[in-house]
């Protein structure tokens, strides 16, 4: 959109007084273009750096592609896509939703590993990325939604992309971790881990006393805040034709932090989805049977290696779901 003269003047003034000094402090005074890649960053963070006058763009690539697969051209920069194919790169989306690419920069083979090479690259040179996504009609931009192995379907056939929703939730500073359920079910539900530092600071500022993570996680005002975050994510998902079915209908805040020592996370803090589902199977069942509360006991591992257990009664809440195409997505009773 065109920018008027008054807005240009105000931005020029802001660049002298605020934006320029911040760029200088960040060591980015002379940066002409910057890229973010790997794990998704929050749209607020993306917009913040661009508002400072830094030409930050999304990049999607792999070592097997000699890095570049897609990039965002000038004037087509968005926080929710990774751009259009780089020159010479072809893209295709498999029936499973997995993204494949082919280009002159594709790797020849994995060193002394013909089996892995054959699993990754076919005879025509198409390379499997392991990521699921789709190409937007009209813009040609690629959107990555999840790891291909994690993408599934709801019972009604709607797309289920848990990591995409989890990332949206984790953009809120109060939410440390989220695990979304829904594959082959009627609707989506979620486990939430609060960020003890962020929520603890909020509690101190508001004179809310608590004695443990478990006590703070179950506080009514904390649950209200988490519910508002979930409903904001639902509002965002409702505008996405492909992912509107991933809106979260019910949720609970876990009584313990997911921990690598308990096998719930990898050492790089990636959720072990299957293990979490099996370990907390009683909580998953309660999310889908209409329960308002659920009592549970969980084994934990302390820092010194000792084993113990935590007992808790957790509140289960319904989140507001936004109607899509005139239809209200109701949670099954």
Summarize the structure.
The chain is globular. Helices cover 29% and strands 26% of the residues. The protein has 333 residues and is an alpha+beta fold.
Primary descriptors:
single chain, GMP Synthetase, Chain A, domain 3, disordered C terminus, 333 residues, 4-stranded antiparallel beta sheet, 4-stranded mixed beta sheet, Luciferase, domain 3, alpha+beta
Q: Explain this structure to me?
A:
This protein is an alpha+beta fold. It has 2 domains: 31-147, Luciferase, domain 3 (Roll), CATH 2.30.38.10; 151-318, 2-Layer Sandwich (GMP Synthetase, Chain A, domain 3), CATH 3.30.300. 29% of the residues lie in helices and 26% in strands. A hairpin with a 5-residue loop joins strand 14 and strand 15. It starts with a helix and ends in a 15-residue tail after the last strand.
Radius of gyration: 23 Å
- Under CATH, the topology of the largest domain can be stated as GMP Synthetase, Chain A, domain 3
Work out the count of structural domains.
2
User: Overall 3D geometry?
Assistant: globular
Nearest-integer average pLDDT: 92
Structural class: alpha+beta
Low-confidence stretches: 328-333
Written as H for each helix and E for each strand, in order along the chain, the element string is HEHEEEEEHEEEEHEEHHHEHHEEE
CATH superfamily of the largest domain: ANL, C-terminal domain
Task: Give me the CATH architecture of the largest domain, please.
Answer: 2-Layer Sandwich
**Count of DSSP helices?**
9
Counting DSSP E segments of at least 2 residues, the number of strands comes to 16
What is the percent of helical residues?
25-40%
Biggest sheet, in brief?
4 strands, mixed
Calculate the terminal CA-CA distance, rounded to whole Å: 47 Å
CATH class of the largest domain: Alpha Beta
What is the strand arrangement across the widest sheet? 1-2-3-4
Strand proportion, as a percent range, falls in: 25-35%
